[in-house]
Amino acid sequence: MFREEHGMTKLSRGFVVTGLVFIAAIGSAQTATIDLTGVRIRDALNQSRNSGATTCPPSKVYAYSIDGYVVGESGLFQSLFPTPTRLADALEAFLPGSGRRLKGVIKNQTGQHPFVIANITESGSVTYGLTIDYAFTIQVQVRADNVAEFNLTGVNLEPSWFVGSLRFTSGAATITKIAPFPLGG
Fold first, then answer.
1. Which of 135, 22, 130, 38 is nearest to 76 (CA)?
2. Burial class of residue 42 (count of CB atoms within 10 Å of its CB; 0-12, 13-18, 19+)
3. Are 53 and 167 in contact (CB under 8 A)?
4. To the nearest 10°, the Cα dihedral for 90, 94, 95, 101?
5. How far is it, in rounded angstroms, from Cα 148 to Cα 140?
6. Tens digit of pLDDT for each residue in 62-85?
7. H or E element at residue 13
């Protein structure tokens, strides 16, 4: 029924790979979550949040995700996003391709903290009736005390009276420690 290659059927190889991935996932991942609910994306407003008592132990590999829903509170943002919209979709409306930078896997060569997990800087112009100049930096890091931190800085949305602001209705920045899983002896 299943063709045998190199002493294993495709089905048995699938079970072995699935089992190893499952064991690696449950045996070696620790996660720190930073709640982003209430964070505002508004001209000249820097914001920071951290994981509080939940820490992220040092690792050589991390997976990260910045996800959530935003709603426009005023101006153009309120017209474009009157109901909660995924952050990635809102960013894509202005910056095609930028949503893919909100998730990833990164190596930490030293395996020590502090360590910047993601440093996303965007800037440019887009036209929506008026020319809108934008710039911002999103940084996710693990501090020396192993607390995970989210920073939104350098926000420039001009003309601010026209652009307005966004607010996270829910969401999180998540950092997961991925320990190398030894395969073979």
1. 130
2. buried
3. no
4. -20
5. 7
6. 999 999 999 999 999 999 999 999
7. helix 10-28
